[in-house]
Amino acid sequence: MTDRRRGPARAVLVAIDGPAGSGKSTLARALAERLGVERLDTGAMYRAVAWAVLRDGADPADGAAVAAAAGALALEVGERVVADGTDVTEAIRGPEVGAAVSVVAAHPAVRDVLVGRQRAWAAARAGGVVEGRDIGSVVFPDADLKLYLTADPDVRAARRAEEGAVALARRDRLDRTRAASPLEVPAGARVVDTGAHSVEEIVEEVLGWL
Ligand code: DC
Q1: How far is Cα 190 from Cα 8, in angstroms, rounded to an integer?
Q2: Which CATH class is domain 44-125?
Q3: Which atom of ligand 1 lies closest to the CA of 139?
Q4: Global pTM value
């Protein structure tokens, strides 16, 4: 048996999808630590692009303009998020970016740019824990493990109290109903209700699936 605390015997790729407030970042962080790999928050990438579009006074609905911004943006996504040399970690969680990000993320050309960057990130590391909305369905359909997180709407709204239940519901609706890579349960994904167990319990169960 491999001792997961010392890291995996081989590189491992875990894909985590789910709606806002389903616990993706918390679980991704804990799993990455236990597996000794890095975590990528792809939502932060879409948020950083939305931030750049707003900074430039561009129209989030203009797919060509947003895709150009996505391609040109210098982006570092770790515990801090740095876009074009500016630390945007807090700014990308604000209401302006929150309101624009689902519009930005709906453009196929924007998704092409960011999916390419996400695959390059994983290839450079030979694995990792990657969280988002289309990771198991589109970005890494051959991941070693695909998880789809759920939680009751009340639980999710409480976790995202600052955003507010109405804004959260709007974002969820846009993310689930868009034509390009909508949020869905990926084929072969394990569905985990994060409202029912502690993070530690979920991590132990998930590690047993690898
Ligand atoms: O994970 P988050 O709530 O920070 O994501 C912000 C938005 O980015 C989300 O509402 C939809 C979009 N997104 C996406 O379309 N695809 C991803 N892989 C990750 C996020």
Answers
A1: 20
A2: alpha beta
A3: 18
A4: 0.93
132 Cβ closer than 6 Å to some ligand 1 atom: yes
pLDDT higher than 80, residue 44 = yes
Domain boundaries, the chain: 1-37+127-210, 44-125
What are 45-99's pLDDT values in tens digits? 999 999 999 999 999 999 999 999 999 999 999 999 999 999 999 999 999 999 9
Length of the chain: 210
The finding on whether 105 has its CB within 6 A of some atom of ligand 1 is yes
Q: What is the pLDDT of residues 109-159, one digit of tens each?
A: 999 999 999 999 999 997 899 999 999 999 999 999 999 999 999 999 999
Going from the Cα of 200 to the center of ligand 1, the distance in angstroms, rounded, reads 25
Q: Is 133 in the pocket of ligand 1 (CB under 6 A)?
A: yes
Q: What homologous superfamily is domain 1-37+127-210 in, according to CATH?
A: P-loop containing nucleotide triphosphate hydrolases (3.40.50.300)
- What's the gap in Å between 154 CA and the centre of ligand 1? 20
Pocket of ligand 1 contains residue 92 by CB under 6 Å: no
